[in-house]
Amino acid sequence: MLFLRQIRAHGFKSFADPTTLDFTHDMIGVVGPNGSGKSNITDAIKWTLAEQSAKSLRGSKTDDFVFSGSSDRKAADFAEVTLVFDNQKNIFSTVDTEIVEITRKFVKKTRENEYYINGQRVKTRDIQDIALESGLTKSSLAIISQGTISNFAEAKPEARREIFDDAAGVAKYKKRKKETLIKLIRTQENLNRLEDITSEIGRRLPSLEKQAKKAELYKEKIKELQSIEISILVKDIKTIKERIQDLSSQRSVFQEKIKTLSNEINLSQEEFDLMVNDSSSSEMEISQLNNKFQEIIQRIGNLKVKKQEVEAREASKIDTKDADEFKAIQIKKQFEETRVQLSSEKDKAFRLEAQINELKEQYDYLSSKYNDIYDEIETIRKNISRIQIQKEHNENQRQSTQYGANQGADNVIKHASNIGGVVGTLLSLVKVEQAYQTAISVVAGASMNSVVMKSNVDVKKAVEFLKRNNAGRCTFLPLDSLNPSVIQGAQRAAIENARGFIGIANELVAIEAKYQTALDYALGTIIVVDTYDSATALAKNINYRFNIVTLEGDRILPHGAIVGGKTRSQNIFSSQSQTQSNSEELEQTLVRLDAKEIEKTRELNDLKLQRDQLRDNLNDNQAIIRNAKQNIEQYRVKTNELSEDYRILTGNDLLGNNQDDSNESESIKFSRQIAKLENERDEIQTRLNLLSTSRNKYVDRQRELNEQNSGKRAELDHLKDQSAAVSSELSALQERYIAILKRLAEGYGLTEEAALEMETDAIENEQYARERILVLASELKDIGNINIDAIEEYKVEKERFDYYDLQVKEIREAAEKLQSIIMDIDIAMETQFKKVVDDVNAALPEAFAKLFGGGTAELIYTDPENILETGIDIKVNPPGKKISNLNLLSGGEKSLVALSVLFSILKVRPLPLVILDEAEAPLDPANVERFARYIKLFTSETQFIVVTHREGTMENCDILFGVTMETKGITKIVKIKLVDAKEMVSKED
């Protein structure tokens, strides 16, 4: 059988140059003088098949296998050997190729052994596995040396069985058993360790479970208590805010009414003052007109006296005339007087018509302007109402943003100059970077509305001011007596080294150095970290001692309460400045609109007075013109009658007569003057009547305004009282509202928005809820001291216990499986070992007889009851002898006994390759001949490489390789003929 086709060596031991041995036959002989390196061929095969023992390779260390140099050759850097096998019979079942190349390379520089199968790098174990699979191991019969023969013959029975173990394939089972035993030992060690851990945890669990249940009960009670308290507080907030809204609306209505009434009273007062002025003007004009009226009366009287004197003189002149002529003169006189009166009335009517038209135009203009201003005032009032609503909304928003604007703080700030020592609210003194605003807003809360004062003395004055004016409550921070707590020393060092730590809150906020104490008081024990995970880890490390807040506003309070989530507005800094800006802008707009409303209202009232006066004048003039028109018609009728009478008497028409007035009598002239004065008198009288009427109206209006203002002032006082009562109630509600917000912030770390967004049960029976709070408080007191960490500790330890308990069960099962595997391995080893021994025992007599030329041999168990541990003894009877002990045989006989057993093993368990390294050396020539011929019987199943110097063996080899060392230290191999081999051997001898 051809199995090993080729050996290639370079740098291995004495193979300094690349050397190749091609094997083309089943029995190859290797001959050469001692020291030529022929045994290095055997070492090369063993080394390549992953032999790890330097001693078995005839060395002391790995470097001994690398060519060490000679007198004219330097040492090699590496050693490399490749074995080429024929795998057509699938001897290497794990390698699916007909040719298998196995290579081992050692590089001195890297000190690394490299293994390859068909050029692919593999592990040492992979080479060992295929060597074991093919039977090419050092404990097998693959390599039989002179030492192997003598050792086998002289070995103790227990050591001798190793050959049979290998032949039976027990080696792989032993390897598996060894590995399994190691696993079992490790498994048992793990099991013991885990049982210790489980036992330790198990002892702690009952106590932890008890503590955890107690802590859970505490948490349940606390949760219920907090839920009820928060629900009550939320209900109170809603009730208070609804009441505040109602009261704010009432106060707004009162304030609007107060403002309207005040404006009406002011306008009435202005109208009253105007009435007084107009009344005074009318009195003055009446006085002047009365004087003029008396003067005209006196002049009329004087003219009438003169007229009577003239008429008397004229009457004396006409005594002698005809009565008709006299009558005609009288008629003409009356006619002239009537015509003068008619002309005067026409002139008067014309003037009045013009005045009426002018008054109508003025009245229409004033009415139009009045309507425009009225509409403008209505628009202004709507805008004022809208801005007041917006301002109220902004104020509510500002209060909500700042945890309820502190009325006391506001009043202190407003009256800072009167109180003295007021620095400002803490919020107004700080500057916070955008990145930290949410975190600081969440934790600072209502404390930002605290008022910083210069000293305790100033605080006392501020408190007295608030009490004296019932102006609310406030938290003060006196700079001269604050004693803030800050994190320092070892605590700070531990916190600063924590993951995600950003800083202490008071160090992240900018403030003037002189106010730092106030900031330290508010923020000195608050830690800012980056994320929620960092916060929870740090809180646990410091045993929940301080407030911790993340950049997103999640909080962990002392003792472990956690506040998280997000509200619509978490940044008091940005919203506060924006709301303040909006409020200031609205306030400025409101002031402008108020001023404009007052201005337009005053203008409207002035127009109303002017329009009313015009209407009165227009009505008066219309009455006068109606009277004048009646007079004109009467005078026209009278002139027509007089003209007709005169025509009858004289034949002339007075209406058509264009006579010269120069002939007019002196009496008629006086009549005309008198008529003119009387007309002027009548006009003055009319004007006096009008003025008197207006004066009376002014007086009546003054009295009416006085009465109205008196009622309005009483109503105004009543409204102010109502508004003050509402404001007082509002102040009390706001203080209560602020107190609730502080309770939420300080007790639960909640903002108003967060509390309102929490899913709390509605309080249906508040009395029951408050009683339940007392019960829960009592139950919490009864619980006593608790370890809140026990919940998590128990959970962790229980999970550990369950995990390790499961591991213990699994490892126990694994140990049982390993023990079962070991039992199966023992059974398999015993079965296969016994079969091999039986088979070898059957083949041994034949082999013994052929090698000895007769005789018998038998294998015997030293401990038949313990096949796995029994040794193997050999009972032999050479031809003509009866031997009880192998030690009684000669050296050659011992070798033949060993060879007969070894060849019997090869017969029942053939190997693909056997290397015989001078195995026949102790034999005499006759036995060497028998030995060589006997080998030939096995070549169909086994390839033999025989290292020899015996002629009988060389003669039976198919091919011979000669090994020489022409250059000292360097081996050279060539194919040689038998005659050359004999010569080579004879030279050695």
TrEMBL record:
Any one GO CC term of the record? cytoplasm
Gene Ontology process terms (BP) = chromosome condensation; chromosome segregation; DNA replication; sister chromatid cohesion
Asked if the Swiss-Prot or TrEMBL record annotates the protein with the keyword DNA repair, the reply is: no
Q: Where is the SMC hinge domain?
A: 420-539
Q: Give its localization.
A: Cytoplasm
Source domain of life = Bacteria
A single MF term (Gene Ontology): ATP hydrolysis activity
Binding sites annotated in the UniProt record for ATP: P33, N34, G35, S36, G37, K38, S39, N40
Residue ranges the record marks as coiled coil: 208-306, 342-397, 576-736
Q: What is the designated name of this protein?
A: Chromosome partition protein Smc
Annotated organism of origin: Mesoplasma syrphidae
Kindly list the organism's lineage: Bacteria, Bacillati, Mycoplasmatota, Mollicutes, Entomoplasmatales
